[in-house]
Amino acid sequence: MLDIIIRNGKIIDGSGNPWYSADIAVDAGQIVEIGRVNSKAKETIDAAGNIVCPGFIDMHAHPDLTLFYKEVQDYKLRQGVTTEVGGNCGFTAAPLYPKTSEQLKKFMAFITPPTGVDWGWSTFKEYLQKVSDSSPATNLVPLVGHGTVRIAVMGVQQRAPTQNELSEMEMLVDEAMEAGAYGISTGLVYVPGNYAETEEIVALAKIAARHGGIYATHMRDEGENLINSVEETIAICQGADIAVQISHHKAAGKLNHGKVIESLGVIQNARNSGLDVTIDQYPYSASSTTLQAILPPWSQEGGVEKIVERLQDNEIRSEIQNQLLNSHGETRMGGVLDEILITEVKSHKNKVCVGKTLKQLSDLRNQESIDVAFDLLIEEECAVGMVNFSMSEDDVKTVMQSPVTMIGSDGLYQVGNPHPRVYGTYPRVLGKYVREDEVLSLETAVRKMTGFPSQKLGLHKKGLLRVGFDADLVVLDPTIVKDQATFLDSRQYPVGIDYVIVNGQIAVADGQFTGTTAGVVVSKNR
Ligand SMILES: [Zn+2]
Fold this sequence. Notes:
526 residues, alpha/beta, TIM Barrel, 2 domains, nine-stranded mixed sheet, six-stranded parallel sheet, 15 helices, 31% helix, 19% strand, binds zinc ion
């Protein structure tokens, strides 16, 4: 008696190959048979008319702390995601040093849920153990974040590390890789990542490369200096001899729309010269991050207390204000200040701001938008989430069609009204971009969500439907699959994702979360 048999489905195996008809049998967490299955099982799923494919691997997910938040665990599952890559953009929950722990917690504030996180770890290994003990809803593939490592050793200082500090950072990266990380990430637009020169990153990426890890990067600039940033990334790839993943590729800011054609060309040239550079993307023309990121990097030195102090000092505040916007009224993150949508605050009194734009709040509070932004940062001690309308829809399609692009949600969960990608990324690609706009074939889209990320990360038993692989599976209806989350009402589940199986256990049945959380830490050394 097997655990599960999925009968009569159209198999899309994650390799990009065209679909074929077969049954799939699952037992003890693994795929045990594909073809005409004559055995019997405890559970039989009739997938007639539906697609059966590998569980989606979210290449860029930020689940690092929200996976401890037990109130909700189904927003990724119900999209078909069974594995999430954590630790992107330089943000990881470990290592956590006592002397800089407060700074790290503030750095992580905008991706920290209100409850469930006990911060009871110090090393990367201890953190992974805590994740394991918490039985997450999806599998975690960890990266170690450069921002976190830098804060552990040097706090939030705008200078190069001393030789000793660099050695200590190298040691921490080595320790994380040893504990099972799949690579190192940077967020070079954020502080303190922004304070690091290229050589510092190369030195640390070399350590990850020695363990066979990858380098994932939120680049220094995705707007005016997009091409320079891609070139810096390629230099790191070459200097550290490491495979590279460029995160959430885009051209931010109206003046830069269309630049992705050039950036994709630079990436293709690098590949032609033998460098392993690939990218990921979320299917939306607005980004989302911490509001603090719009401030000039110098004004963020020292962390949250210092930022608040500077914003309270009228002279420094007006200096920041003078540098905040370019001649088109856009911030350093691209996108017009007035259009920024507030997605999350910590305090009760500012809950009313969630789901409103800075322009709406400016009318409501009778203040300039810029002052609303600054005052919110002060009142919330910088724990403010935002959505930023910075991209063009044509660019989104251009990047999606590139053969080097995989899908990653960048879906950082927030309790307020997060970016709709948290609930909608995968069904949106399958509904809007495959079925409606015909930007991709279904098989290609599935490959970008499964076999391709698995190959990049080196997840040897995930991302394809093969006998002996982990039984992470999705059954979906290609005729109706669709996202329902919008910018103003983002906490809406998709339709058309009928079954999701994680490690051989049914986590979603008939489109509903079953309450089963069968995720594990996928350690590079397992
Ligand atoms: Zn990022």
